[in-house]
Fold each of these.
Amino acid sequence: MSVLRNLENKIAGLVEGAFGRAFRSEIRPVELARRLAREMDQHRQLSLSNTYVPNEYTVWLSPADRRALGPIEDGLVDELSAYLLEHARAERLALVSHPRIELRTDQRLAIGECGIEAKLVAREGRARTAGPPELVARRAASAVQVGGDGPDAGQAFLTVSGSRTPIGPRGAVIGRSPDVDIVLSSTDVSRRHAEVVPDGGGWVLVDLGSTNGVRLNGSRVGVPTLLTDGDVIEVGPTELHFEVY
């Protein structure tokens, strides 16, 4: 079974299992996930060393489909975003930030119809729908190579309340969701709040679009930021101590 098929099965279980009984429109959540993945694949942009894909997606739905999604929209958006991140990792595609998805209504669409707009957006928020990805990479100090093994990054650890957790070669996600790598229980923490990922020869802290933000050594993190041994990451009320050897 292919990696993509495994991912599709995963999203089918996550989304349909959680939301299937509440979702009654023509468009199923799994179908949206697959359409988003296809949109990502169709907008690949080659640079000198990476293949970049869009990181922001607007999904246009009919009024009836949007109403049907209303009670589950926040959770569904989180699951779809996680699916795109896993798809990018499996295909070794580069993202300049965690995928962001927004659902909107288009009165012209009938039930079962949808449209997707994909954008490659630099970290300071400037959209690039057709420009060379090298421009985006230069603006963003170091684009995150999602899924890179980071062989020269060294073994990293995060310590929370005395519990020391090694970070795997693909990084670690921090949040409130039970399926992330480091689970924090505070309601001030988003389901997928932040991520520590290998980037070149080091490790980078990335805010995954959290509600309350991330602080590094007391300062708010607005863009992916290189970590050094001894840094203190603040996620909600929790401090995580970063070590690397």
Amino acid sequence: MKALNDDIQMRSDWLFPICSGPERLRDGEGYKAHPTQKPEALLNRLLLASTNPGDLVLDPFFGTGTTGAVARRLGRRWLGIERDRAYADAAEARIARVRPLSPSVLETARSKRAEPRIPFGTIVELGILEPGITLTDERGRVRAEVKADGTLSVAGQQGSIHRLGAQVQGKTACNGWTYWHFEAEGVRKPIDALREEARRQLGLAVAPQFAGLVAAE
């Protein structure tokens, strides 16, 4: 019983209602047009998570066109393959009724993982942080010197922002981008704020969120 309860607590499936109501397609006699029509909410989540506006979405088992309908609404191109003429006709009529969303509402928040990776050494190479500057923890108690190769040094220990951040805390891992801070205009800020400036200088960002350069102390 304990193992069963553990499995329930670790569920990672998605919960969607069955396809019903006005969304459920029916033939002229009121019967379901397709026995396993998928809910549009399911395809909406899948397409938002795995495609971008303008991408081509292929569904080789098109059925009544749920994939095509959602793709059209979300500004994606679509290609469906269906051998049953009745299903194909229902899909064509269904998709023709879909009103695409405006491009402005299709803009989604960009995740950190999707952003171009910027090593800390690049921050030093670009002169955003110069060798010799001092970084600290959030409270200013731990002080580290930035080396020319993008490593940090604290009391004879030298390593990456992540490894050294973990060592000084006695931990096995550390996100150095949020642990180490620089000082600008009397305010400590995490060095993570400098990555957007690096992306701007490298032509990888539209507009910088941080526009100041930090000189060596």
Amino acid sequence: MRRLEGRIALITAAGSGMGKASAERFASEGAHVIVSDVNEAAAKGVAQAIVDAGGSASAVRCDVGDLDQIKTMIDGVEREHGVLHVLFNHAGIPGQAGMDVDPDQWETAIDINQRSAFFATKYALPLLREAGGKASIIFTSSVSGVVGSLFSPLYSLTKGGIVLLMKSLAVRLGPEGIRSNAILPAMIETPMLPQFFGRENGADIEDLRASYQSSVPLGRVATPEEIASVAAFLASDDASWVTGVALPVDGGFLAK
């Protein structure tokens, strides 16, 4: 069943990992996917692979830390399509660990993890309103957005803010038929995973990884495709009565 047939979806940080898997899944469900990434070659590679597989996609380079680039990206969606059905604010970085964070590092984490999602949504709202009650905004938060992070208070701060942004938008935009939800992943096998465990000086990455994995009731790391399947659900009419939800996709991590 192609639940996103004829719809336009924009995914940030879609050049690898969960974003890439989501782009592929959305395309397989019938959407035209705009693959956005700071790595232009990666974005183009994902888009071309989707087209080669029979799907519909285009690529755009966007550094979400730069508001002008976000605005330019959304303006391009308006020119090409005039409507946006799905905005997946997926871009994010681990940020600096611990409390030894300088102001530049703090601002970078805030800009990429929070500011980008707020302003991408602001710029895209006129296009989402054109979706005729079929619009879905999806955010990638984290389990660390609802429970404290031992390693990174800064990361928890940014991802916790995303949860409340999502809820506020659900309340504000619900009367217009625009849904807003967030995915809360735990440990996912992506290129970013080693960065999370390698931020502490002298950290044994494999030991930290094993310890974290043992705390997950399902006892394993998730795949990017397992996040993509949840994103596709939230983007589709199967989730037409779902808004304001911070949905853990965490193997049971938050159930304890």
